[in-house]
Amino acid sequence: MDKAVVTNKLTKRFGNFVATNEITFEVAQGEIFGFLGANGAGKTTAIRMLCGLLKPSSGEARIAGFDVYRQTEQIKQVIGYMSQRFSLYEDLTVRENIRFYGGIYGLSRADLKAKSQQIIEQLNLGSVADKLVVDLPLGWKQRLAFSVALIHNPKIVFLDEPTGGVDPITRRQFWDMIYEAADRGTTIFVTTHYMDEAEYCNRVSIMVDGRIKALDTPNQLKRSFDVDSMDGVFQILARGTSTK
Amino acid sequence: MDAIVIERISKSFGETKAVNDVSMSVKTGELFGLIGPDGAGKTTLFKILVTLLRPDAGQATVAGFDVVKDYRRLRTMIGYMPGRFSLYPDLSVEENLTFFATVFGTTISANYNLIRDIYVQLEPFKNRRAGALSGGMKQKLALCCALIHKPDVLFLDEPTTGVDAVSRKEFWEMLQRLKIHGLTMLVSTPYMDEANQCDRIALMQTGQILAIDTPTGVEQLFDKPLFAVKATETYQLIQDLRRAPFTETCYAFGEYLHLTTHAGVTPETVNRYLIMHQHQHSEVKPIQAGIEDSFMALMQHG
């Protein structure tokens, strides 16, 4: 089993509205997969189904081999999740957040201790380990949130706009962490509104009105649409016009 | 007379200097971008300029009125679109607009020409509750409400944050069209790629201004050799280049890495190094810095 994600005609309807419309794709283990689309294109609905949080209306999906209808508890054990809006408890300290998430995922006392030490050292958070998360700069919070999302060594981690609002250097440091995690074999499933970040992905899918309109490597997408940037590809697909 | 004049404004919250001795001015009719990440102090500066916060030190005028002493008169001259959706979700589209017009003692029809372009897209939904609109529509309605009293100066605080690349482009096109009405606009954004939409920009970081100039002027502040580099193994390439003796910084920039080096380094130097480290299909070309390159350089030396 070396596919992190496999879907077949995965669909979600809300009343008459088809939020996610028969999407079919695969993501390989260890791949950095960019999941792009305009606001309202159906990305969040799709991600919620893949995380086992929302039951599909029809179609199939397996996450690390687990079925999204019947094995949602197993799915939650093998995935990590981080969103820009909420990931850490701001009125807990750095150390408490790590312990809390580690505890939720059932890490042993010894593992938890080792993990806490490792994360705090790696992120250079020694001086603020006992400070409340609310007082950390946004960039630090985001890197901590990412490390916490990986605390149980998930097979796949979902990152929902992880870099929104941070400065350009911190944004790139964050991508360094993504590359490192992928290099260790973790599958990265990431959404972003920064089109330069789409270029950092191994493959990218672009959703428009609930469907996947394109899926390929950034290079191949640029070649097929005859543009020189992923922004160009995105503008053509999501807006229906060329900005060349 | 400049539309906005800021002289040595500071504002702290506890220990945090949110805005630290900032001075700048915005010309009448200018589309001016305040560009910086979260925590730069953009929103605090906006709140001071729209009279919602008093500065600890310094002074500022907007449309000729002092932001502290003349705040009552000033409030009628400005439009303000805060970063968070701030309309009445239980009122319909039309009711919201009517409400804002009435508060400012005017009517929708009196200033309709200013919002026509934008409002026609909302008109099919004019009876829908504002809270039930899509993100893009909410944003358009908020812009209409900020414009309906025909302000001299329009303040837009992060109107495009969290918005997809297509809608962001459309929003800037709306602002470009508004320029013909002679409005002065101050717009903040964390997206560096939006800088080129502005007449002039200020780069802001941790309460201070790093640079003020035209977008081209800011790009020209970058004074080191800069190369775009790529090879088959991007992750390995970044690691290797960061260890190279000639490297100052190396960051991912879309398809390429941007490599800043010491003076006098040529593409041949870099190429030789890449071959030595067995990189395949490598490409090295000197490039002009963009806004983001300048911002990152200023952050590191500022």
Automatic annotation (TrEMBL), chain A:
Transmembrane portions of the chain: none
Domain ABC transporter intervals: 5-234
Signal peptide as annotated in the record: none
GO MF terms held by the record: ATP binding; ATP hydrolysis activity
UniProt-listed InterPro entries: AAA+_ATPase, ABC_transporter-like_ATP-bd, P-loop_NTPase
Superkingdom field: Bacteria
Name the UniProt record assigns to this protein: ABC transporter ATP-binding protein
Keyword Nucleotide-binding belongs to the record: yes
Database matches in PROSITE patterns: ABC_TRANSPORTER_2 (PS50893)
Keywords linked to the UniProt accession: ATP-binding, Nucleotide-binding
TrEMBL record, chain B:
An MF annotation (GO) of this entry: ATP binding
InterPro entries xrefs: AAA+_ATPase (IPR003593), ABC_transporter-like_ATP-bd (IPR003439), ABC_transporter-like_CS (IPR017871), P-loop_NTPase (IPR027417)
ABC transporter domain mapped to chain residues: 4-231
Pfam families assigned: ABC_tran (PF00005)
Keywords: ATP-binding, Nucleotide-binding
Entry protein name: ABC transporter ATP-binding protein
Native source species: Fibrisoma montanum
